[in-house]
Here is the input.
Amino acid sequence: MSRRNDDRRRDIDTDVLVIGCGVAGATTALEASKNGLDVVVITKNANPEESNTYYAQGGIVSLGSDDQPELLAEDIITAGDGINNPEAVELLAKESKPLVERILVRELRIPFSRSSPEGLDYAQEGGHSRRRVLHVKDTTGRTIQERFLRALKGRKALTLLSGHSAVDLLTVPHHSRNAIASYRPPRCIGAYVLENETGKVRTIFARATVLATGGCAALFLNSSNPRGAIGAGYAMAYRAAARIINMEYLQFHPTALFHRDEGGFLISEAVRGEGARLKTREGRTFMQKYSDKKDLAPRDEVSRAIYEEMIESDSDYVLLDLASYAKTDIKKRFPNIYRTCLRAGIDITSQPIPVVPAAHYCCGGVWTDLWGRTSLDGLYSVGETACTGVHGANRLASTSLLEGLVWGTRAARAIVESLPSVPLYRPSEIHPWYYPRNEEDIDPALINQDWLSIRSTLWNYAGIIRTRKRLERAKADLEYLHHRIEKFYREVRMDENVVALRQGIQVALLITQAALSNPVSRGAHFLKS
Here is the structure.
C-alpha cells in the first residue's frame, strides 16, 4: 500500500533545475539566469556555502606570463597518464585565461593574491611545469563560493532552495502515465526533491536538469572532502540509465593533516610548490626514490610513495617539512593552514606537519560531451559530477575549479540554445511521488554502522593500492549491504540521511565494479598482483 503526495502546490515548474551550487552549478545557474531563463538551484545543505568548492585551498589554473595553452595541455595529459580526452583538454587550456578574467576577475571581483600592485601572484603546484595557479592566499575556494552565492542571490529569476535533497531524477517514459510514451526517446524532465525539514517530497519539473552534486571521496574512511560528498549525482544518473565512466580513477590527495581533532584537513599542494619536502618520521626525504620530479610529482605517484613508506616503517603518517625549505612568508602565504595546524598544536613555521593520503577527487563520473550534455536528453552534468575526459586517469592540481567554470559556462550556453525546442510536460502526465506508508522512526546507530562499513570497505579494499582479491571481497560485501540498505530505505520514513545512505552505497558499488573491470594499472587506479 502506498500513499500519494497530493499537495500539488509543492510542485515547481522551471526552465532549468540545477542540483548543487558549488563553482560548476553556480556558474551554470548564473549564466543561464543572465540569459533570461528561470532557474531553480537546490542544495541539500542548510548552509549553501557547504560544498567541495568552499574547501578548495590551492587555487585555480590560469596561464602565467611565461605560459602557453599547449604547455598546460601537456601537463594535464602527463598527469592523466595519457588517457585524457584531447579535445576537452585543449578546450580547457584555451578557455582558462579568458573565462577566469571575465567571470572571476571582472564580474565577481575575486581578490586574487598579488606579487606586486601591478601583477597577480601565480603559484607552483605538483605536476605543473610553470607557475600558473591563481589563489586567494590559501582560501581560494571559500572566496569564490561566497562571491558566487552573493551573485546568485541578486538574480530575480533565480530561486535558491537550501535544505533540499534530490532523491531521484524524473524521466519519461519511466515516470509517465501515458503507456504510449514508451515509444519515445528517454528524457530527463526534472527531479523528485525532499524538503529535509518537513520530510515532504516535491516534484520539480524542468526543461533542462543539471547535475552539479560534486564528488564522492567522503565514501572513504580517510577523506579530504566534507561529509556530504557521497556522489548523489552519480547514483541518480545511474538509476536513470545515463552513461557513467572512469569511476575506478579515484584520486587520493597525498597530504591531509593527520590529527585526531583536525583529521581530513587538506594541506594544499601549493605547500610543496613553495618548497616543502616529504620526510619519514625519522627525518629522511624519500620522494627522490619514486619520481624524477621528487616532491612535485603528480598526486597519484606521491600518494603511493607515502603509502609505501608508511607500510615499510609501520607508521600512521609521514612528515611534510615546510619550515626548513620555505620560499615565502609562511604565515602570510598560508594563513588558514597555519591557524588550523596551530589549533592542533603544530607550528608550521618551526615544525613539520604530520600528513597522510586521503580520498580527494573522482576523475570519472557522468559522461558528457564538450557542452555538458549527458547521454540522456534533457540532463546535463558539470564539475566533479561529470566526466568530460579532461582529467584522464589522474587530475592535475587546481584544474577542478577551472573545469567547473568552463563547463558550467558551456552547459548554460547549450541550454539557452536548445530550450526553445524542448517539449513541455504537464504534471497531470507524470506519476506523482509515491512512497510506502511506513512511518517507522530511524535508528541512527544503523545508519552510522552502515556508513562505517561502506567507508572501511572502500578504504581497505578499493583504496590507494588494490588487488583483485580485495576488490572481489569489496564487491561481495557491498552487494549484501546494498540489498540491506534498499530494504531499510523502504521501511522507514523519508529522511535526508536515509536518502544519502542509499545514494552512497550505489556509488561505492560503481567504484568497485569499475575497478574490477579494469585490469590495467593507470593513474589513480593501481592494481598490485
Remarks:
- Confidence is low (pLDDT under 50) at residues 1-8.
- Residues 468-491 form the longest helix (24 residues).
- The chain has three domains: 2-248+363-427, 253-358, 438-517.
